[in-house]
Specification:
By secondary structure, this protein is of the alpha/beta class. It has eight helices and five strands. It has a five-stranded parallel sheet, with helices on both faces. About 35% of the residues are buried.
């Protein structure tokens, strides 16, 4: 039904997924494939509400947090992802359903229930690139780009739980990548997965 492809980039903060998304987008464009680059939380009102609450350090119940992310995803699918897929584009999405599974799962909600509900409500991804890195290394990268605002220990403890849930998710559309170390090596891995899983070859052109 949808001629397009949906590729989600997932992992804990500092895993390097956004860098890899940008690198892949460049290659997709160079191959003359129409690409849609997008992210969650979105820039719509629903996403801005989430970011504003996070910045204010507001304590939000996990159920409410999940509702907010789902509301934002619904808008995102309606306005951006759905139309792009129908137009046959390759959608590169920075965070999607598995972020809700892992982050809200780490806050105590049932990961499997979030995953099943997400799969029923939203387009299934053709591929999820799941970037695995230790929370310590991820946080060091976030700190290096000047992004840490909460106590390191608390963050690390929480991200350990998030990483644990990411590790436990089992779906055929997930490709796991070791995200520690070099970005160029990781890019090669990403291209390998695209070729093997989706039959999309992007090595030439750049
Ligand atoms: P953002 O500043 O965009 O971080 P990043 O660049 O790491 O994606 O904020 C996204 C935060 O929101 C991130 O910490 C993960 C969290 N999140 C959830 O908890 N649930 C979700 O469903 C999504 C999409 C994100």
């Amino acid at each position: 039904m949808n001629p397009g492809k949906l590729i989600a980039f997932e992992g804990i903060d500092g895993c390097g997924k956004s860098t890899q998304l940008a690198k892949l987008a460049e290659r997709v464009r160079a191959a003359d494939i129409e690409v849609c680059i997008t992210a969650e939380p979105t820039q719509f009102e629903t996403g801005r509400k989430i970011r504003a609450a996070a910045r204010a350090g507001k304590a939000i119940a996990p159920e409410v947090e999940l509702d907010w992310f789902l509301e934002d995803r619904r808008i995102h699918v309606d306005r951006v992802i759905g139309p792009a897929l129908e137009a046959g584009q390759m959608v590169l999405c920075d965070r999607y359903t598995l972020s809700s599974v892992a982050y809200q799962g780490a806050r105590g909600l049932d990961p499997e229930a979030i995953l099943r509900a997400g799969e029923a409500a939203f387009p299934l991804p053709d591929l999820v690139l799941l970037f695995a890195i230790s929370p310590r290394e991820g946080l060091a990268r976030v700190a290096a780009r000047g992004g840490v605002s909460e106590p390191l220990f608390e963050n690390e403890e929480f991200l350990e739980s998030v990483a644990h849930v990411f590790d436990s998710i089992d779906r055929p559309y997930i490709a796991r990548l070791d995200a520690s170390g070099d970005a160029d090596r990781l890019e090669t891995e990403v291209l390998d997965r695209l070729e093997r899983r989706l039959g999309v070859a992007l090595r030439r052109g750049i």
